[in-house]
Design brief:
mainly alpha
């Protein structure tokens, strides 16, 4: 019986340690995703101001029904600069998580939209799939380049969800602090309005 209880306590301790370690690693992973997405957006966004990158994305944009119309009133370089500004802005919003979860929530939402658009390029861009191998084989160039955006889309979903959770916690803490403050003020008011103990004693019937 004693051995059974001892073994159960040991297993419980091990489970608690694993759970704690898992939470710490998960939190570190979440922060790493924020940092990675911000770096990706800063780097990709900065490259959009070069002619090399503007020409590199032209084939993707020109074949996309979602974006090709923008070439009707923007030249290749102007659109690339516009996209660069947008990507750097999204990177800044995501990086603002520690001071403004609402900003990173917006960044996560915009990031989801951007990566959903780039994933759609897999359907509209020629050369994504490798015909010599048949479906679902993808090309080593543009196909694999676009496929990774599925993971980045998932990371953006995590950023949005984590940011909304942080916003809810902040509002709950603010509400709790306000409720405590109101209760404290009300208690002081009632204490000051109450008659002194000596008065109560003098009014008591003898």
């Amino acid at each position: 019986m004693v051995n059974s209880v001892s073994n159960g306590a040991a297993r419980l301790s091990d489970s608690s340690a694993l759970e704690y370690l898992g939470r710490r690693i998960s939190r570190a992973g979440t922060l790493a995703i924020y940092a990675a997405l911000a770096i990706i957006y800063f780097w990709f966004g900065g490259m959009k101001f070069t002619l090399y990158e503007a020409n590199g994305i032209q084939g993707l944009v020109a074949n996309s029904p979602l974006l090709s119309w923008m070439y009707g009133f923007m030249d290749v370089m102007a659109f690339s600069r516009f996209l660069g500004v947008l990507e750097i802005t999204v990177g800044l919003l995501i990086a603002a998580r520690c001071i403004a979860p609402a900003a990173s929530a917006l960044g996560g939402f915009l990031s989801m939209g951007l990566f959903a658009t780039t994933v759609s390029f897999m359907v509209t861009t020629p050369g994504v799939f490798e015909p010599s191998l048949g479906f679902p084989a993808i090309s080593a160039g543009v196909g694999q380049f676009l496929l990774k955006d599925i993971g980045l889309f998932a990371a953006s979903v995590l950023v949005l969800g984590d940011s909304l959770t942080a916003m809810g916690r902040r509002r709950l803490r603010a509400w709790a602090a306000e409720a405590i403050s109101r209760h404290s003020i009300a208690s002081r008011f009632h204490a000051s309005a109450a008659p002194p103990a000596e008065q109560l004693e003098s009014l008591a019937p003898r």
